[in-house]
User: Fold these one by one.
Assistant:
Number 1:
Amino acid sequence: MSLIVQKFGGTSVKDAERLRNVAGIVTDTYKKGNQVVVVVSAQGDTTDDLIEKAAELNERPSKREMDVLLSAGEQISMSLLAMAIEKMGFPVISLTGWQAGVQTTSKHGVAGIKKIDTERILAELDKKQIVIVAGFQGISKYDNITTLGRGGSDTSAVAIAAALKADLCQIYTDVDGVYTADPRIVKNARKLDEISFDEMLELATLGAQVLQNRSVEIAKKYNVNLEVLSSLTKAKGTKVVEVTKMEKMLIKGVTKDTSIARISVVGVADVPGIAFRIFDLLGKKDINVDIILQSIGREGTKDMTFTVSAADADYAAEALREGSELLKDKEILVDKNVAKVSIVGAGMETHSGVASRMFEALYDAGINIQMISTSEIKISVLIDKSEADRAVIAIHDKFDL
Amino acid sequence: MSLIVQKFGGTSVKDAERLRNVAGIVTDTYKKGNQVVVVVSAQGDTTDDLIEKAAELNERPSKREMDVLLSAGEQISMSLLAMAIEKMGFPVISLTGWQAGVQTTSKHGVAGIKKIDTERILAELDKKQIVIVAGFQGISKYDNITTLGRGGSDTSAVAIAAALKADLCQIYTDVDGVYTADPRIVKNARKLDEISFDEMLELATLGAQVLQNRSVEIAKKYNVNLEVLSSLTKAKGTKVVEVTKMEKMLIKGVTKDTSIARISVVGVADVPGIAFRIFDLLGKKDINVDIILQSIGREGTKDMTFTVSAADADYAAEALREGSELLKDKEILVDKNVAKVSIVGAGMETHSGVASRMFEALYDAGINIQMISTSEIKISVLIDKSEADRAVIAIHDKFDL
């Protein structure tokens, strides 16, 4: 007997037919003698519908009330899934975030899981129940409903698996695993049997949209046995493991992220402390900065260029203009017409020539590189947004993935 | 400064425009220096939509999961109303049933309120917040979400008003008060300025659909200052009070209830204990019986006839057939084609001739009476369903209401 956590995303539970399909997967696992905890997202477009309803009334609603509103989405999907499982004759109970003991920070909209009090889940498992838990949501110490931010159901599932010391955590999505590139862009993209936590982390961060990166961080920290697979096919998924088996393929995948923006602060004084001032201002506003480039300008000035998520771009520019006397009359340029294309693979650093092959692929395709950023296991370039797909294909071909 | 509880039903919050209207009423009350607790139902057809979604998956879902599902409805409406109030610049917070301390029995679908732990509501009022509470829902001692049954938001509002010792509890609906008859049927129906708890209780029980009867019972028990008024007009509503002022009008209203059924058990043995056996069987199935008529049959047998709600009728007949050896081969007739028409008014018993005037009105209209039931403040007759509206008009005219 194993304890298995299974997570199903919004498209997997979007209507009655899909819910019945998920009920089939869950009960098959239960029938084999396993204990099963299911984590669900809100149905298909529910979250978007609720956001639209809110926007009709208030374009800037408080994050607390937004959390109350959005958390109703999983409450609906989890009870419907429970009913589908009841219909098949199995014992089942659904639990909201607060009922399941998911304790979070008080940061509404982007709360972090602090602790999971597993008492209720364990009690229900002891009663031989299939336990369904609302993903994406929790409760703060002030008894307020919180949400973990978009895609947070992955994090819920992995955190619950870690807290329960589950034997396996399966993330069911609408793709059947992790690919060397987005199969919608690169026709000959290949599914990976295995990927390491670190590689997955870079892929998640870089916009592969398979797993939320916080979920991968938790999986790595608690060494959760993680698997990504499709709720619609019976195909083998991708296992996310501590260290992948030795294999000749160095590069695990190519990804693109088009929801970013480049901000340039032009002609700031070339004196110490400017970088600190800029990134301190942004940090205080909870704006994450990715690639940073500092160029020497002329006549004692320099340009600072960096990337942020597209959603944060205008807010970031405003924060800089208003936050500092040194910056307020400087030219601050925001360019949302950019994309970041990256290659990821552990051990990349010990293999020379990887970067140059990537750049060569882009050169051959006539694509101009605006910025470059590297880490131990990834190389990212910033390019024009309209060339992102071509870049992914060119790189994928060059490395023969 | 007064503490005022305001309850808004589903039609009052059905869309963005209505929510803004409600936000206006609430903030007007708050602006006058009052503390305001708002109780909301789910938006318009949300509950029906959710029931339909459930029915697609399971025609007999467990009541526990149904409560989880339906309670999402108020969570949506309360957060949207909070956002509309935020937009107008007022401090506001929404609380679910469990957050607001609404403790109920564990009887899912028809839970009763046991106690309201007002700590959280009072803390938020102390912070000068407008407090919105989800109606219709609560939490059992096992930390499960419960609902109070359809229309339960009235009960939530009155119970919260009682627990907070509120100065006033206003029930906003889509009618602007309590009328002498349904204005959709009787064109010259008149709005009452006042009605007593007992009269209101009879009206609520008899299908007037203005207030849920449990809410009136609680209001009577705790002497809650209750008012029924419209969220759409500025018209004065109807006050529900302990004892109405002396006034010459004896009869307060005429009502009809068409969602009932008549059940006849034909030719049972005329021996002691038969009535006990029948109503004990029904009581054990939680089926409420209303009017009862026992007629002497022939050759040592009798017929038992009684009314139940139409929804319970088939279930009741089945319970009788299966529940007793004495009844299983008896003819059990179910007639759903009936209506109950009633007149209500305190002091009726001390005025002779009221019943005969009612019967005269029906006789003049050529309407046949099947059964009669009386109490201190009401007289009900069972008639053919198709004649219900004509009966209400005839009686209303006869008493010149």
Number 2:
Amino acid sequence: MKLYDMELSGNCYKIRLFCALLGLQFQSVTVDLMRGEHKQPAILQLNPRGQIPVLDDGGIIVWDSLAILTYLARKYGNEQWLPLAAEPLARVMQWLALSENELLYGLARARAVKKFKRPWDLSQCQEHGKQGLAALEQQLNGRLWLADEHPTLADIACYPYVALAPEGDMVLDEYPQIRAWLSRIQVLPGYIGMPGI
Amino acid sequence: MKLYDMELSGNCYKIRLFCALLGLQFQSVTVDLMRGEHKQPAILQLNPRGQIPVLDDGGIIVWDSLAILTYLARKYGNEQWLPLAAEPLARVMQWLALSENELLYGLARARAVKKFKRPWDLSQCQEHGKQGLAALEQQLNGRLWLADEHPTLADIACYPYVALAPEGDMVLDEYPQIRAWLSRIQVLPGYIGMPGI
């Protein structure tokens, strides 16, 4: 299994983290976003969006972190990570959606403005991110995990850009439930970190 | 079944359209976004994000359009709409992710700037939206549907904000494959439209 990857990408880290928790081995192929390698033919022929992560699992190509997470859960995980019944599946999907919205366009973009000089409006991104943090803090009040009694893909998908939020000048001091949840993820068997966390 | 809904919301329309294709009846409860009703306690107690759509299916509350689509597909649809095997599931999820990224933060935001005077950078949104349109156009070259040999949730999730793109000053003239795909969706049995399409 091959992962087109970059160390500082939170979306790539989601996949590395989930593989580590599942005990899956893969070969990491570094794609240098700073040099625009993701917009070169080698990546574009795998992913029409010109983004990473991209997974190559014995010739099965999957792009997009959300799609790769669900692929790995179904192929190598179990229903703990991605339940199939309508209601628990919807619970997981709600937080996967939050990870693609408030967390990606809020927290991750704020981080990208500060860290990679991207051209977005920092305060708009931070404000959007805060809405996501507020929803997470409320959900985790009295719960250990976001979508079920145990960790699911929801926790894996939301974790990276929340943990990286301070790199976008977002402080987590006022979110005690979130901080406790980050700590719980960090002691899951197999857990790995990334620079900035 | 009750849907907290607004006629002009493309995300709400995704749910109305999918219910129509499945032949599901529901009661539409209008939430007036212009008057901020989605940030009032009645909605906030259902959805911590303060957004619509929200589904109430006999007391089971599901928020977020992506989560509601997967809920309805699993509960009332069949695997045609949301396959469960790893690889076809990943194919559907790829385009669901595109619908939450380039289409929502590109096309839908461009529309919201033009139509609802939202404060985002129009050209940034349009540029982001174009990347999504380019990926769709490439995927639909030689294919009838996005993720399989038949319509799936991928098509339902991507359709609304592509069809509404002209309201964000995006012309679809240079995307013949997309225009043919829009027409195919519009003749699916049970299809309904919305204002602007």
